[in-house]
User: What shape does this take?
Amino acid sequence: MRSIPVRALVLVALVLLPAPCAAQEPVRSFDELSTRLKPGDSIAVRGASGLEVSGTLRDMSASSLTIDHAGLRVFEADDIREVTMEKPRSKGKWAGLGFIAGAAIGAALPLATMDDADTIVMSRGAAALVMGGLLGGVGAVAGLAVAGTPARTLVYRAPAPPRGRQAQVYVAPVVTRRAKGVALSFAF
Assistant: This one.
């Protein structure tokens, strides 16, 4: 039985994964927002109430911005918590990346797992082509699904309001060899 070491498979997976990109930090002052956005950009605005509205930026001033969302809607700077920019993803690029990743994994599986007894039915090369084609198709469909949602970049986050004497609740998972649960703490 011939098998590829796990280290080699992990190395192939790491090479195929896209490298994370360095993102710009969001601006903290509403005045600086005009350096990141221009009229016509697709944005999403999250207000102080937590409601998010997506639309096209029409106008921006030092104290408000106007978006087109089923009619013009004006947001005052004090009512805005976050602004994100939305950009469509390339369907061809994401389908291609999904196909390449799926085909590579599909081709590597038979090569890594088949032994001489399995090659009576089908050779390793033929199995790699079949599995690569099948998983490549699955990867292309997954890539198209990812491309259906726009890429979002956070461009503005309002400074946190000063906290007074408010009650706070903290919840954290606890996982040990003997116990699994949730830690809960209150602060007044």
In short: The longest helix spans residues 124-147.
